[in-house]
């Protein structure tokens, strides 16, 4: 029994892997005060005098507004949902069982912005499915999510659709619409929702 669910045609399978390096290094700068003058003065004081050392305060590292890096999480294509941000697969394929998701604040190529079930088709028909995709992924749902109509946008659209096997064996009818920045890397580090790009 096949567990393959989705085909990723066109751009997702054709985009060359550009050697993306994800980095999650965080630099926390600690303030270090110059205590040389106060330490010299303390040495001159009587050693029998009881003093309270106020110069040895510990300073906590400053909290960064940046999110801590999270490694990509492999997820079944059956479980990917609206709001998930997907990284470029390392190996190109026409069918996928799993994809890797990351927080949308980390480098990623695709963001799932809409899902729908294929309707009014009894038998698997790729052309009929793609006609529904043209209406949904490139239509009003895109404009609602981005804030700009697809034909006026600089963004690209990709989609995940059932395969013949998943259609027949798993009753799979789900299409996931994904948006991406159509540039050299297709990479972004934020959600594209409301971007009006």
Distinctive features:
197 residues, alpha+beta, 5 helices, eight-stranded antiparallel sheet
Structure description:
By secondary structure, the protein is of the alpha+beta class. It has a domain at 6-24 and 70-181. It is 19% helix and 20% strand. It has five helices and eight strands, in the order E-H-H-E-E-E-E-E-H-H-E-H-E. The protein has helices at residues 11-14, 36-44, 126-136, 140-146, 164-170, and strands spanning 6-7, 73-76, 85-86, 95-96, 98-102, 110-117, 155-162, 174-181. It has an eight-stranded antiparallel beta sheet. The longest helix has 11 residues, at 126-136.
> What class do helices, strands and sheet pairing give?
alpha+beta
**Tally of helical runs:** 5
Work out the radius of gyration.
Answer: 26 Å
| Helix share bin | 10-25%
Distance between the termini: 42 Å
Give the oligomeric state. Answer: single chain
Shape: globular
**Uncertain stretches of 5 or more adjacent residues:** 1-43
Task: Note the topology.
Layout: E1 6-7, H1 11-14, H2 36-44, E2 73-76, E3 85-86, E4 95-96, E5 98-102, E6 110-117, H3 126-136, H4 140-146, E7 155-162, H5 164-170, E8 174-181
Antiparallel strand pairs: 1-4, 1-7, 2-5, 3-5, 3-6, 6-8, 7-8
Short description:
This protein has 197 residues and is an alpha+beta fold.
